[in-house]
Design brief:
The chain has 727 residues and is α/β, with parallel strands linked by helices. The chain binds adenosine-5'-diphosphate and zinc ion (ZN) (2 copies).
C-alpha cells in the first residue's frame, strides 16, 4: 500500500481580488480545515488557509494526468490545530459575500495580527515553564523544597519559581531535575473580588427583563434614555447566562470612552474578564484571544473587532450604543458589527440585545416592523431629565456677545462653580472648516439639488456636493439674503475655547481633552479619572467627551456650535447631531442634583434642535424618516459606494467613468462621478449605487470586479457596502 494522498483546497494569502478562489494542492499528511499551510504559488512562498481536505482514491500520476496544470504538494503545515473554527470559517464566507471583500481579507480582519495570514507578522511571545523531569538526582533540602513546589503544581512559570527560589531554580534545571518547555505567554488574570451586588430593578427594568427572558425572539432593541438603567438590565441578563456556564460578549463603541462599563462588569462578576480593543498591542490581543479560545474568559468587553473572537459557547451578546458609527468598519471588509453580532447570535442560539438612547434609524425601523423585538425604558432612574436652555446665536451675536461663551452660558457656569459642582463643555465641530456660512444671515450654503451642505475645497476654491457631485465656485453674494458681506467658517477649536474659559474664569481648574492632549497612551483615561476625582471644575473637549461619562457632580453641560452638524455634508448628519445632543445632555444631573444644559445654536427652530430640547426621540424619528424618504436615502434604500484611489488623476477619472458605464441597471441608480479631492497625494473619485435590491447591486459589482481585464484596468477600488456616511 502506498502512502495515503490527500487533495487539499485552500485560500491563498494574496490581496488580488481575482485570486479570491480556492486552489488545489496535494498532501501526504491529512490537514484540517482552518489550519494554515505553506504553499508554492507561481514561485512565491505563500500561506494558505485550508478549506477542505479529502483522501484521494487515485494515485498521484493519475491525478496529474487528469489535471490541466501541474499539481504541487503543500510545502509545510503551519498549525497543530485549526486557527479557525467551523463557525468562523462560515462567518468569513458570509462576510465575504455580503461585504464583497476577498476571503483572505476577511480572515485577516478576523484574526489578531500575531496569527493573521501575513507571513511577516511576528511570532507570539513565549515564556519558559518548568515541570519535574523523570530522573533521579540528589538535591539539597532547599532544592528539594523547590522541586516539590513544582511537582505540587504540575508546572510553573520559570520566572515565578525564581522569585520564590532565587538560588535554586537555575540549579534544578542544570541538574536536569526540572525540564523547561516554551509556551505562548498568557494574559494576566483580570478577575477581581466581587464588590457590587445586583440592584433591585424598578418596575420598567423588571418588565424589560421578563419580556426578554420569556420571549423566544433572537434580537432585541432596548430603547431607553440615558440613565434609564439599561446597563443594569444587561448585567442581570449576563448573570443568568454565566450561571449556565455560557459566555457573554459585551460590545461597546470605543473602549477608551467606556472604562466605566469594564469596571461595572468586573465589580459585579469578579470573573476572569477579557478586554479586546484596537489600542492593545499585537501581543496583548493575542493573549486575550487565547483566553477566549481556551474558555478561560467567560465575559468579554470589547469594541467591534471583539465580535470575531473564537467563542465556543456564547450565551448572550449585548451591543451598547448600537447606533454608534464606530461599529462600522470602513475599510474592507466593510462590515457592520451589528450584522456580525446577529449572525453569531443565530449560530449560538443566543439572544442579542441592542441598546441605545438614540437607536439608528435602521434599527428603530426594524423594531417598529417587529424584525427586532422593541422594548422601551421611558424613565430615568432618578426620574429627572435635565433642563435644557436654548441660546439662539444669531440673536446673541447681533447683540455683540461672543459666539464662543455667550452671556447665558457664562452666567450658568458662574452659578455652577459657586456651588462647587462640575461643568462639561462640548465643542461640536464636525467638519466646521468645510462649510461656508453667510456672515449676514448666518445661513450655511446648501446644494441646490440635495439640501445638504456644500463642502468647501480650499485648494481648488470650489464648493462641492458629496452626495450628487455638483460643484461650483463660491458665490460673490449670498443666495439666501443677497448680502455681499462674505462667508465664514466660524471655525474655532478647543484651544480657543480653553483660552476663552480661562479668561472668563481665571480661578477655575480646566481639563482640555482633544487629539493633542490624549495622544499619549492612557492619557485619556488619566484625564477622565482626574476629573472624576473632582481635581478639575471644567472638562472641555470635542465629541470624545460626550459618551458614556457618568459623574455625579456634573450639573451643567454647555454645548457649543450645537447644530453645526445639521447642515453637514452627509445624509446622516442630522442623525449624528441628534445623537450627540442627546448623549451630551445625558451627562448632566445623573445623581441627586438636577442637571442643566445650555445649548448654543444658530437655528433654534431646526427639528434636530427642537427634538433634542424636548428629548423626544420618536418625533425625531418621524421627521428624519420623512427626510430620508424624500431623498430616498437609507433605510429606504441601500447604498454601495465604490471609491477609486490613484496617484494619477487621469487614471482615477477613467476608472470611475468605466465603473459608472458598466454598473447600470433599472433596479438601481448610479450616482457620480464625485471627486472627493486629494488625500495624501492620492486622487479619490467615487460613484455609488442606490437602490432597494441590495443583492442585485452586490451581484453586479461582484461580477464586474471578478473579470480579470476589469480588475487590472481599475486598480485600487475601495468598496463600502451600506456605508454609514457619504462624506
Ligand atoms: P443607562 O445604561 O441606561 O445609561 P445605567 O444602567 O447606567 O443606565 O443606570 C444609571 C444609573 O442608575 C447608574 O448609576 C446605576 O447604578 C443606577 N441604577 C440603575 N438601575 C438602578 C436600580 N434599579 N436602582 C437603583 N439605581 C439604579
Ligand atoms: Zn445670507
Ligand atoms: Zn447635491
Amino acid at each position: 500500500m502506498e502512502n495515503p494522498l490527500y487533495i487539499v483546497q485552500c485560500w491563498i494569502e494574496h490581496p488580488v481580488r481575482r485570486l479570491d478562489q480556492t486552489f488545489t494542492y496535494l498532501s501526504t499528511q491529512e490537514v484540517q480545515p482552518g489550519m494554515r499551510v505553506q504553499v508554492d504559488f507561481n514561485g512565491r512562498k505563500l500561506i494558505g488557509f485550508v478549506e477542505d481536505c479529502q483522501p484521494s482514491s487515485q494515485s498521484e500520476e493519475e491525478l496529474q494526468q487528469a489535471s490541466p496544470f501541474e499539481l504541487k504538494h503543500i510545502s509545510a503545515v503551519l498549525d497543530r490545530e485549526p486557527l479557525l473554527t467551523d463557525e468562523l470559517r462560515q462567518l468569513a464566507d458570509w462576510l465575504s459575500r455580503t461585504t464583497l471583500a476577498t476571503h483572505i481579507a476577511c480572515y485577516q480582519c478576523m484574526l489578531p495580527a500575531k496569527i493573521k495570514p501575513v507571513s511577516h507578522a511576528g511570532r507570539a511571545v513565549q515564556e519558559r515553564w518548568v515541570s519535574c523531569a523523570d530522573t533521579e538526582t540528589s538535591l539539597t533540602p532547599r532544592q528539594l523544597e523547590a522541586f516539590l513546589y513544582v511537582r505540587q503544581q504540575g508546572s510553573v512559570r520559570y520566572q515565578e519559581l525564581r522569585k520564590h527560589f532565587p538560588n535554586q531554580a537555575k540549579a534544578l534545571v542544570d541538574l536536569g531535575a526540572l525540564q523547561v518547555t516554551l509556551r505562548d505567554r498568557e494574559a494576566e488574570n483580570l478577575s477581581s473580588p466581587i464588590v457590587s451586588q445586583p440592584l433591585q430593578l424598578n418596575a420598567e427594568q423588571q418588565a424589560a427583563m421578563q419580556e426578554i427572558e420569556q420571549s423566544s425572539d433572537a434580537v432585541y432593541l432596548l430603547h431607553g434614555v440615558t440613565g434609564s438603567g439599561k446597563t443594569e438590565v444587561y448585567l442581570q441578563l449576563a448573570q443568568k447566562v454565566l450561571e449556565q456556564d455560557r459566555q457573554v460578549l459585551i460590545l461597546v463603541p470605543e473602549i477608551g470612552l467606556t472604562p466605566q462599563m469594564i469596571d461595572r462588569v468586573r465589580q459585579r462578576f469578579g470573573v476572569d474578564l477579557a478586554i479586546y480593543h484596537s489600542a492593545l498591542s499585537a501581543q496583548e490581543k493575542y493573549e486575550q484571544y487565547r483566553k477566549v479560545k481556551t474558555g478561560r474568559a467567560s465575559v468579554v468587553v470589547g469594541t467591534r473587532s471583539a465580535v470575531f473572537l473564537p467563542f465556543t459557547n456564547l450565551g448572550l451578546i449585548v451591543m451598547d450604543e448600537e447606533h454608534d458609527s464606530s461599529y462600522k468598519q470602513e475599510v474592507q471588509p466593510s462590515y457592520h458589527c451589528r450584522d456580525v453580532a446577529i449572525w453569531r447570535g443565530a449560530y449560538h442560539h443566543c439572544k442579542v440585545i441592542l441598546g441605545s438612547a438614540t437607536p439608528s434609524l435602521e434599527s428603530y425601523a426594524r423594531g417598529l416592523k417587529q424584525v427586532y423585538h422593541l422594548i422601551t425604558l421611558k424613565h430615568r432612574i432618578n426620574d429627572c431629565l435635565p433642563e435644557i436652555e436654548l441660546v439662539p446665536l444669531k440673536k446673541t451675536m447681533a447683540r455683540g456677545e461672543s459666539y464662543i461663551l455667550t452671556e447665558t452660558l457664562k452666567q450658568r457656569m458662574a452659578e455652577t462653580l459657586a456651588r462647587q459642582e462640575q461643568i462639561i463643555l462640548l465643542l461640536n465641530r464636525r467638519g466646521y472648516s468645510t462649510q461656508l456660512r453667510c456672515l449676514a444671515c448666518k445661513q450655511v450654503l446648501l446644494c441646490p439639488h440635495c439640501d445638504l451642505a456644500l463642502s468647501y475645497h480650499r485648494s481648488e476654491r470650489l464648493l462641492k456636493c458629496h452626495a450628487c457631485g455638483s460643484q461650483m465656485a463660491a458665490p460673490k453674494a449670498c443666495p439666501y439674503c443677497g448680502s455681499t458681506a462674505g462667508f465664514s467658517t466660524y471655525g474655532f477649536g478647543t484651544e480657543k475655547l480653553e483660552a476663552a474659559v480661562k479668561q472668563a474664569f481665571p480661578a477655575a481648574r480646566v481639563i482640555r481633552m482633544d487629539a493633542d492632549t490624549t495622544a499619549r497612551k492612557d492619557a485619556h483615561r488619566k484625564l477622565l479619572e482626574a476629573f472624576g476625582r473632582h481635581e478639575a471644575d471644567i472638562l472641555l473637549g470635542t465629541q470624545m467627551i460626550s459618551k458614556g461619562l457618568d459623574y455625579p457632580d456634573v450639573t451643567l453641560v454647555g454645548i457649543l456650535n450645537g447644530d453645526d452638524g445639521v447642515s453637514h455634508t452627509d445624509y446622516r448628519s442630522c442623525e449624528t447631531t441628534f445623537d450627540l445632543l442627546m448623549q451630551a445632555s445625558g451627562r448632566s444631573g445623573r445623581s441627586e442634583h438636577r442637571g442643566r444644559v445650555v445649548l448654543q445654536v444658530f437655528d433654534p427652530d431646526h427639528y434636530v434642535v427642537q427634538c433634542a430640547v424636548h428629548q423626544n426621540y420618536d418625533l425625531f424619528f418621524r421627521r428624519e424618516m420623512q427626510f430620508r424618504h424624500a431623498g430616498q436615502y437609507p433605510p429606504y434604500t441601500y447604498l454601495i459606494s465604490l471609491t477609486i484611489v490613484s496617484r494619477d488623476q487621469k487614471k482615477a477619472d477613467q476608472s470611475a467613468l468605466f465603473l459608472k458605464e458598466h454598473l447600470q441597471a433599472s433596479d438601481y441608480k448610479t450616482v457620480g462621478v464625485i471627486s472627493l479631492g486629494r488625500l495624501q497625494d492620492r486622487c479619490r473619485n467615487r460613484i455609488f449605487l442606490k437602490g432597494k435590491n441590495l443583492e442585485r447591486m452586490r451581484e453586479d459589482v461582484r461580477a464586474l470586479l471578478k473579470q480579470p481585464e476589469t480588475a487590472a484596468r481599475l486598480g485600487d477600488v475601495r468598496i463600502d457596502v451600506e456605508p454609514m456616511t457619504l462624506d
